[in-house]
């Protein structure tokens, strides 16, 4: 085991310290805005020895792109993340069961129980708050232990984090059969390594009534499992409240997604990607709703005034498949090229509203929402789930170009590459296929990615 | 070498064979299928000849790579290459399974190829098998089988009767009993059949009509009984892994003083279903149970303990000395499984070698060296344990 294992939660503690320092600042969103301006992009967009420990945090929170109003929402989200980390790094009060939940599951039901939820893959994102190379250390730990290098880097972070003492010991694990084989396989490893009981949601292949019913039946089984491992009873009234929060959150985020069809776009996928992180860690939280509400109000105001999120929107990008998390490119693309990502694979919300009138309707609609969550929505079935959504985005979002991230771990995406490529070709839009990884900066360097994006924009007269 | 074994090796070495050609000449439609979760009995009862898809004789991936990429499984790329080359033009239909992220896309890509006028059968089906074992999943799988039955009935224009299903059930049960006999002959102190030969047998019997398979197996069992296919000093190996269809690869392992006496492979023990005592009253439900609960592969998320026990039980019963576990490159499922099995083997003090390779991808020299070194290690361990390099039976 490497040096980093000496301290329990070493990286999480580092991330926590950073968030702790940022918390008071976000009470003054205007000050944050001007501080960011003062620090300046030229210094922070490029990695140096002195900024490498907090550069990611700066990019993660939007660089200089966000307005003071948007910063207010980010502050709320950071507070939620702070609470999430604090719950397992410095637990206080009576001990609660620690339940691990796979990153593509929705955790409304888990939120009803009096438990601490931990999402192993969040370490792949939050780990970066511990410094530029933090996620790579976790990934290498997993590979050195014998995990296959071809696993998705998120799965390697989940296992590596446990091996490095970065994860709390679970009392139970819940996972699913989507979005990919890496999840299917890595959770078997986690179950064995931790010795915790595990419940698996078997995600149906199709999107039809039969499939929703099958999933809904499993939600009842999941509730039974959680009742057994926690010794608590399901509180249906509380679930109703959580579902209402989720409904409100999704409605706001979905409308932001829809408003991005306007030219100029009043928001970018960056606003939605922040929420993806918040969603993973703190799904169904009141703070998440608050974030969505503020971001929605800001976007709507700009939309009604006919203003764009960028002062001068020059290029509209559709970004498909996963983002590059180790090098959040949005602030740089916005500043350098006036390029705004108007629709993407991860941040964009396309959700059902949950009918909370009866237990049955709630569970039925929860099944639908679970199968429509980002990544699950596009990957749990035939290639049309990818390509039809992409087709719609191209038709509805007036894009100028298309950037597709070919993430090393996404074998199902690679296996449908011809179908995806053809969808782009039909439109005649310029397309860039970036061979990289979502979390692992060893695959392709940040410099090389930026070079490819720059050349792509320039050679297609977009810059 | 026995006459039947030679015949079997010829069948296993090519996509088509005389038995299949005879069936085609008699207007019996052939349906290709992927994976051991597709019940052959259903295809047979519908009047089709079930044919397990393979990449035998593959010479490249040029056409396959127009759909798949370098980070996809070499079996899928090679098999789909042959599809696009028209080598499977004799198929009337195909059943794809959501086995893994690579193979499930065959269904998508084949449909696209069909639209583009590339070689494709008339009927393409997707069978969805759950990734978990429990009652609700079993009920779901049964429904999926019913959907496939309906699709096949529409394709062949006739209804699959319960009697036809029961008859098919009996035929495949007979085939399984003969395969189990061969497995028993493998487990003998001096195995009657080598690992390479066994792989050929299992490939052959899934490429011919089941009636012919039974006839071949009956003759083979009679011919190899009493045969000595290895030496008493040979290291006895168990082979574990996913897709493997090259007998020459196992022969390369057995070039050493070693013989494969047990396995957990797709073309191997995972073809064997749990026993069925009586003739089933509800054949579809019985098939669903037998197929969902058959020895699983790592696509089944909540079944590692049962799978592991089955592997180590087979290891023990076969008197194996060591395990070689193999995966094809870019296979997450077997990558994770080997990680876990290695730990389990270590806890039990069982010598364990993990190999990664590309199907029909060469690299024999490297594999030969690694296997040779491993066999020597196992021999040395035996010698240190005072067995003088000889297996204590």
Protein architecture, described:
The complex is a heterodimer of chains A (463) and B (393). Chain A has 21 helices and 8 strands. Chain A has a 4-stranded parallel β-sheet, with helices on both faces. Chain A has a 4-stranded parallel β-sheet with strand order 6-5-7-8, with helices on both faces. Chain A is of the alpha/beta class. In chain A, 57% of the residues are buried. Chain A is globular. The longest helix of chain A has 24 residues, at 236-259. Mean pLDDT of chain A is 91; it is low at 1-5. Chain A has helices spanning 10-25, 29-39, 41-44, 55-60, 68-89, 108-112, 122-126, 134-144, 153-163, 181-194, 209-230, 236-259, 269-282, 286-304, 330-337, 359-370, 376-379, 384-396, 411-414, 417-427, 446-459; strands spanning 98-101, 116-118, 172-176, 198-201, 315-320, 339-344, 401-407, 431-436. With 393 residues, chain B is of the alpha/beta class. Helix content of chain B is 49%, strand content 12%. Chain B is built from 14 helices and 8 strands. Chain B has a 4-stranded parallel β-sheet with strand order 2-1-3-4, with helices on both faces. Chain B has a 4-stranded parallel β-sheet with strand order 6-5-7-8, sandwiched between helices. In chain B, β5, α10 and β6 (258-264) form a beta-alpha-beta unit. The radius of gyration of chain B is 21 Å and the shape is globular. At the A-B interface, α10, α11, α19 and α20 of A face α5, α6 and α13 of B.
Based on the model shown, name its key terms.
A: 463 residues; alpha/beta; 8 strands; 9% strand; disordered N terminus; B: 393 residues; four-stranded parallel β-sheet; 12% strand; disordered C terminus
């Amino acid at each position: 085991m490497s040096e980093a294992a000496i301290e329990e939660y070493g990286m999480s503690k580092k991330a926590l310290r950073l968030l702790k320092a940022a918390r008071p600042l976000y009470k003054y969103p205007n000050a944050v805005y001007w501080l960011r301006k003062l620090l300046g992009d030229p210094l922070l967009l490029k990695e140096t020895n002195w900024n490498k420990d907090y550069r990611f945090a700066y990019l993660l929170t939007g660089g200089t792109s966000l307005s003071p109003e948007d910063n207010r929402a980010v502050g709320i989200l950071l507070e939620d993340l702070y609470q999430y980390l604090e719950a397992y790094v410095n637990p206080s009060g009576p001990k609660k069961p620690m339940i691990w939940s796979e990153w593509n599951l929705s955790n409304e039901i888990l939120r009803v129980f009096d438990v601490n939820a931990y999402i192993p893959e969040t370490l792949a994102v939050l780990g970066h708050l511990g410094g530029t190379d933090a996620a790579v250390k976790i990934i290498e730990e997993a590979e050195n232990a014998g995990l296959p290098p071809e696993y998705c880097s998120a799965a390697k972070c989940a296992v590596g984090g446990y091996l490095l003492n970065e994860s709390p010991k679970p009392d139970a694990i819940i996972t699913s059969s989507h979005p990919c084989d890496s999840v299917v396989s890595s959770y078997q490893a986690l179950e064995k390594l931790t010795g915790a009981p595990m419940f698996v949601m078997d995600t149906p292949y199709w999107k039809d009534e039969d499939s929703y019913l099958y999933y809904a039946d499993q939600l009842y089984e999941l509730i039974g499992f959680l009742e057994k491992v926690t010794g608590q009873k399901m509180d249906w009234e509380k679930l109703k409240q959580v579902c209402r929060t989720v409904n409100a959150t999704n409605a706001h985020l979905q409308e932001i997604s829809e408003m991005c069809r306007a030219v100029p776009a009043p928001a970018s996928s960056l606003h939605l990607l922040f929420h993806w992180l918040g969603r993973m860690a703190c799904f169904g939280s009141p703070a998440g709703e608050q974030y969505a509400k503020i971001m929605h109000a800001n976007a709507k105001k700009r939309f009604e005034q006919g203003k764009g999120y960028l002062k001068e929107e020059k290029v509209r990008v559709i970004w498909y498949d996963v983002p590059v998390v180790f090098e959040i490119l949005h602030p740089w693309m916005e500043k350098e090229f006036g390029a705004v990502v108007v629709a993407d694979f991860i941040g964009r919300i396309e959700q059902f509203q949950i009918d909370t009138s009866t237990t049955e309707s709630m569970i039925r609609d929860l099944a639908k929402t679970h199968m429509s969550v980002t990544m699950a929505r596009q990957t749990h079935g035939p290639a049309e789930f990818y390509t039809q959504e992409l087709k719609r985005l191209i038709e509805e979002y007036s894009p100028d170009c298309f950037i597709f991230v070919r993430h090393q771990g996404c074998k199902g995406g690679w296996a449908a590459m011809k179908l995806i490529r053809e969808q782009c070709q039909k439109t005649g839009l310029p397309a860039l296929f970036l061979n990289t990884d979502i979390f692992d900066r060893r695959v392709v360097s940040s410099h090389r990615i930026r070079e490819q994006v720059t050349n792509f924009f320039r050679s297609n007269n977009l810059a | 070498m026995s006459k039947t074994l030679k015949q079997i090796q010829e069948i296993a070495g090519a996509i088509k064979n005389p038995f299949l050609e005879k069936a085609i000449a008699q207007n019996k439609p052939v349906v290709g299928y992927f994976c051991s979760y597709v019940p052959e009995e259903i295809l047979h009862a519908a009047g089709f000849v079930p044919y397990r898809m393979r990449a035998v004789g593959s010479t490249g991936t040029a056409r396959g790579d127009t759909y798949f990429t370098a980070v996809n499984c070499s079996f899928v790329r090679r098999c789909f290459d042959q599809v696009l080359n028209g080598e499977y033009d004799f198929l009337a239909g195909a059943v794809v399974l959501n086995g893994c992220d690579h193979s499930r896309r065959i269904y998508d890509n084949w449909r696209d190829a069909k639209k583009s006028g590339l070689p494709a059968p008339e009927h393409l089906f997707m069978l969805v098998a759950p990734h978990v074992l429990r009652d609700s999943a079993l009920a779901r799988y049964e429904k999926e089988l019913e959907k496939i039955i309906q699709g096949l009935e529409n394709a062949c224009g006739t209804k699959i009767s319960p009697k036809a299903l029961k008859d098919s059930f009996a035929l495949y049960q007979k085939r399984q009993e003969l395969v189990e006999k061969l497995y028993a002959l493998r487990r003998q102190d001096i195995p009657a059949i080598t690992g390479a030969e066994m792989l050929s047998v299992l490939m052959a019997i899934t490429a011919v009509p089941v009636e012919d398979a039974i006839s071949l197996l009956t003759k083979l069992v009679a011919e190899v009984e009493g045969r000595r296919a290895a030496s008493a000093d040979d290291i006895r190996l168990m082979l574990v892994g996913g897709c493997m269809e090259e007998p020459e690869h196992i022969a390369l392992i057995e070039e050493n003083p070693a013989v494969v006496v047990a396995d957990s492979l797709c073309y191997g023990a995972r073809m064997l279903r749990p026993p069925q005592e009586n003739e089933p009253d509800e054949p579809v439900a019985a098939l669903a149970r037998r197929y969902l609960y058959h020895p699983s592969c790592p696509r089944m998320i909540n079944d590692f303990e049962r799978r592991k026990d089955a592997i180590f039980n087979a290891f023990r019963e076969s008197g194996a000395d060591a395990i070689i576990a193999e995966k094809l490159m870019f296979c997450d499922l077997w990558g994770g499984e080997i990680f876990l099995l290695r730990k389990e083997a270590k806890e039990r003090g069982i010598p364990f070698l993990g190999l990664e390779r590309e199907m029909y991808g060469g690299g024999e020299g490297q594999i030969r060296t690694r296997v040779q070194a491993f066999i020597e290690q196992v021999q040395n361990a035996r010698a240190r344990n005072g067995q003088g390099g000889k297996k204590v039976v």
